[in-house]
Amino acid sequence: VNQPSQSEIENPNVDVAIVGLGLMGASLALALREHGSRPGAPLRVGRLIGVARREDTVREAMQRGMVDFATTDFAAGVVQAGVVVLAAPVRTIITQLRTQAGAFKPGAVITDLGSTKTEIVRAMDGLPDGLHAVGSHPMCGKEVTGLQAADADLYVGKRWILTRTARSDDASFDLIGRLAQTAGANTLELDPARQDRLVAVASHLPYALASSLVATAEQVSLDDPALWQVTASGFRDTSRLAASDVTMMLDILLTNREAVSGAIRDFQFHLDQLTALLERQDEAGLRTYLYAAAQARKEKGSHW
Amino acid sequence: VNQPSQSEIENPNVDVAIVGLGLMGASLALALREHGSRPGAPLRVGRLIGVARREDTVREAMQRGMVDFATTDFAAGVVQAGVVVLAAPVRTIITQLRTQAGAFKPGAVITDLGSTKTEIVRAMDGLPDGLHAVGSHPMCGKEVTGLQAADADLYVGKRWILTRTARSDDASFDLIGRLAQTAGANTLELDPARQDRLVAVASHLPYALASSLVATAEQVSLDDPALWQVTASGFRDTSRLAASDVTMMLDILLTNREAVSGAIRDFQFHLDQLTALLERQDEAGLRTYLYAAAQARKEKGSHW
Predict the structure, then answer these.
(1) Threshold 0.90, pTM exceeds
(2) B-contacting residues in A 132-191 (Cβ below 8 Å)
(3) Rounded Cα–Cα distance for residues B37 and B180 (Å)
(4) Mean pLDDT, 10 residues at a time, over chain A (304 residues)?
(5) Which chain A residues have a beta carbon less than 8 Å from that of B263?
(6) Residues 6+ apart with CB under 8 A from B194
(7) ipTM tops the 0.90 cut
(8) DSSP state, A204?
């Protein structure tokens, strides 16, 4: 029973277990269900298995027909899966990789959906021989969380970063790329340190700014409650990320501490420059600064 | 000819001149055209007159039927109007108030659409007796600019701050409130210093953060061009305001310098707190900070 089966990787019908049925995991289940059975799909998905922490999540996933089988039992959920997607917060993923390696089917390909990669890839590197592992970071999300917010199109047109690990070979790397494409995403390979440094600027810094902006507004509103009455669409969009899931973001910040600190320091340098131009009323300098930012925002964001 | 006509204020059909046919002015023209002729409208609008700097804007406004008459001649445009809306960048509005007071029809009510109020209200205070003036700040906008982007619903459901001046009386204040309501906005009265302080936090600070975020990303992308490939919806929304019209924003920052500097300093204090919690890995403190911001963002933004 459960012979190592490298052939699983090329198998046109691969069973996929998704561990964690929050927004990201449940949306991936819907996407694979919808697109993974098409004849031309990059990856043909066989059985879909869901693993959730709570009994009512298991029940709801089954009732909605999101998965073929759902369970709260990690080992029972992953034992037959050729692909396992770890879709929990980052530090939970790391714990699962460190403590549950024995539960995976020999030959299985493990991936994850975590936003930071260095620590996750280190844990993947430590998986036993005979398992495959590829790091994934699909760059999408919503402020709403949970299975109820699941959306089969969450991944469509979005960036999905792939990182190789000591447990990646070409076949497993290709397989996870096809999983991402089946969900509708565009893949990009980066090494873990580079991905963490870039995503610190592109994603974790904006979250820190949004949270600090809301903290500032809260403080000001203590002196003058009319503050919240004059917030409008500009404040709404700039602060949107502050409403992200705190448990998820806490894990992200703590596992990408140095890169996020560095991104904040870089940002503070640029904000200080802007403030200095403003305070000394350097109109020409201020115009140049703001114009460059406006141009970059308009030109570089063409893929959004 | 041109007797002071206080009755203009109660006149059910008031001629409105809009000076500046960019996004804000042209959208107001469309809104007043669409809603200002309804029998139950808070303000019944008579003739709509547009004043623009460029001949082709004049031509386009006429071709689109946005206004009954358009001209590049300030004096010719405002001479018969019972209400004049100054819809240019803030420092242009201030210059117009200081140099063109003789062009207004005696008894006319002057308002504006500028984002800062202290300096504009000071200029309004200096208008001659016999003119009325009320400061306006409708809190809406788009990244796209110009008459082509005009939208009759731009003001619907949006906040419109009103400020009294030395040239406001109850009738003129009421009239501009009804103008705002006719465009679909919700009015809120604030004194100029308070509006500038609050809007510095709610609107100008988010713009400064967005611009500095883009400047940071540009700098990082010089070392690693893949940066722009990993920006996604979080970066997109947090940086949206950086694409605002630079001329408009430059005037806003320069005429609200002290309040914006103060808001940036307040923000830096909160960002420093977040950074310190992260660097010393104070998980409980970080969770408390992020959770408070998430809760505030979800609860306080219910009117957006």
Answers:
(1) yes
(2) 139-141, 143, 158-159, 161, 188, 190
(3) 14
(4) 47 88 97 90 96 97 97 98 98 98 98 98 97 97 87 96 98 98 98 98 98 98 96 96 96 98 98 98 98 96 71
(5) 216, 220
(6) A224, A226
(7) yes
(8) I
